[in-house]
Amino acid sequence: MNASLPRFLVSRVLAAAPILVGAVIVTFVIMRVLPGDPAALLAAGPGSGPAEIAALKHQMGLDQPILEQLARYGREVVVGDLGRSFTTGNPVTTDLGARLPASLELTGAALLLAALIGLPLGIGAALRPGSLLDQTSRALAALGTALPAFVTGLGFIYLFYFRLGWAPEPIGQIDSLLTPPHAYTGLMLIDSLLARDGEAFLSALGRLMLPAATMALFALAPLIRITRGALIETLSADYIRAARALGLERRTIVVHYALSNAATPILAALGMVFSYMLGANVLVEKVFAWPGVSAYAVDALMSADYAPVQGFVLTVAALFTGVNLAVDILQGLVNPQIVNGG
Amino acid sequence: MDRRRILQGGAALALLAPFSGRLAFADSRDETLRVLADSAPNSQDPHGAGVSRASLAVFFNVYDRLINFGRSEVQPGLYRYDYSRFEGELAESFEERDDGRTLIFHLRKDATFHDGSLVTAEDARWSLERGVSLPASKNQLATGSLKDATQFTVVDPHTLRITFERRDRLTLPNLALSFASILNSTLAKKNATESDPWATDWVRNNAAGGGAYKIETWNPSQQVVYAAFDDWKSGPRPFIRRAIVQIVPAAESRAATLLKGDADVALALPPRDLDTLSHDSRAHVISLPVTNAFRFIAFNSKAKPFDDVRVRQAIAYALPYRDLLQASVFGHANPLFAAASATPKDASFPQPYPYDTDLDKAKALIAEAGLAGGFETTFSSNVSDATQADPIALLVQESLAKIGVKVTIDKVPEAQWGTQLTQRKIPFYTDSSSAWFNAPDYFFRIFFQGDWRWNFGNFDDPELNALVNAARWESDPAKYDAAIRKAIVLVFDKLPLLPLWLPSYEAALRPGLNDFTYYIHGQVDFRSLKRG
Question: Which pLDDT belongs to residue A45?
């Protein structure tokens, strides 16, 4: 590690601030410009006429000019108040706090699974282009891209739960008849380990399998392709040719020189895939009744529930920035040129 | 990846499968009920603003009311509420005096709330006052002449008196609704604040009830767990001691889990799935006609071209009703079309309208209206209603083309649907709706009068208004029926909207689960369920 890392970090964090402010403003404005009136949707019982709807609008502050609403929202966000969801009746921070760990756990597991399968396949394919392995990995990548997540998900449920009975029912994170472990982290696997509850751990692990596999299939394609591409490119670089000419062992060449140089784009790809999956796995969450943030945001969007959507976008933007930052740091460790601005 | 590896992977999953519940089921699997629903409750407050429909299940299982609807067995092991009969719930008995201008309720002396405190007449009085004061409940209660705190008097700790200006036949039905739930007033008051005297913020997430079930886990967007309240006095001890209601958005997952025997009730399955399940021995599909809800096609009767009654009638004669019924709900509904006579069969509503497919009549009416060359219009539906509305839209488009009407289909996102209906921006559309009560004059007031969105046809007819208003306070049943019959003839003819059918309430149960009772709220009432 070198002296310029702190400066690098500070500059990155500062650069993230406008992104977050922009995300807040853009989402806020879009939600209000979109047609749809939460008050009309809320006053959904006979007996609610225009007067009731107007009263509700006033109560929700929706009759104020949009700039005033934005200013108020901005002040609230700064003190950590993301408003209240009228569809769930809870503060948005409570809802997101309860659901974000579920999304992180699922996305993390899926990414791990995808990396465990995708990286070796990508490396193998790059080392032997045109081989059977290369063909297989290409086919797998195509399959992952071509099959929509809900088709894969329902297919898995049908096969592994309904037909074969190998997987538990596709509902939520843990068996509803078990007492869930105390939420230390919100991550079901870790909490059940902390609580030394083997039964809960196995139940949570079992329920994680199918949704994680569904998402992993989707993440495989970019991982395989980028790993393969990056490695092929480095393998044809001059310094590799030089190393080869110098008679270094193939193993040393691949592991020491090629892979460590190809690691930068691969890490970037992992970061991108992770951030993307975190916010875009709504279909998987719906099919497996997974209590994640994407399904929450989409439900809120459907019912013109402004606060959760804004809170979700802000959270995902923050996570996205955080993940990118982490990737940058990791890349810096792998390849110091990036931090030094070289 | 070869076959062996796939199989090994499967075997690894299989190791985990035994933990899918069977261990915990052991203690009282029979007495535990597992319900898979598609939508979530969002409040524990029966007077709460913006409560979702699924919250009704919370209100009815967690709170008691003074009275409940009676029920009758429609087929072995399946019950339906009886709109005309009432049973005491917290009230042991009740009586009518002064020509129905006074109601006296004698409360059970031993009933307690979940916190152990006695249920008194003061709790009932306070709860009703709360109901008529909070905006989300007061309009509904007012339909039963429950309007003002001064109507409710505590006679003694176990007797409550309610007084009225005149007898109202909608009072008792209103007292059996969730809006008349009895709350633990002492507990709620403790959590009231100056700005929130009715403790709405607190009650939203803390049921202050004394009903048959307590809420054990409240995680509404995922699951709500109910535990039986051991000291419940308002009815026989329920067989179900624990009920888990889980929100499972994918209908396929709900159906698969039920068929595998891992769940007891699957709600809100699409007609296609129900059709398949009804032929499967691993599921028991119950189906009951819903009489207070209906599917319809509506016209904005104040905007061209639908302001001409002949255009509305022409469309009513052009629709392929049987195809609509089949394509939209697989025939699982009671038709409201093709009545043999234009004279109403009785004074009930909704009842079948005297329209059936007759393209010649339709063409003649269109020509009479001066639109022989046809016209263009838009037919709209709510995106969240797609399963049933999309087939309707397509068939409407196809059949109206035959009489020269060119229809463009417009699917409106749910968030905009309410606004657009309220602002009368949609000329021609399909939707479904329900009213709490079946009383015909009540139905007419909601759906054929007023400036609210429930007047789907944007209808305003002085003659109809006079008939309905006369029926409102008519105490002679014969005169009431006569007025309603006239009103029905009028809406048959003027067609502010065209009802298509009465839907069926359908749910898939695990075989062996009996005594399901369909109540007016259409939610699962755990109290009556039994196994075996």
Answer: 57
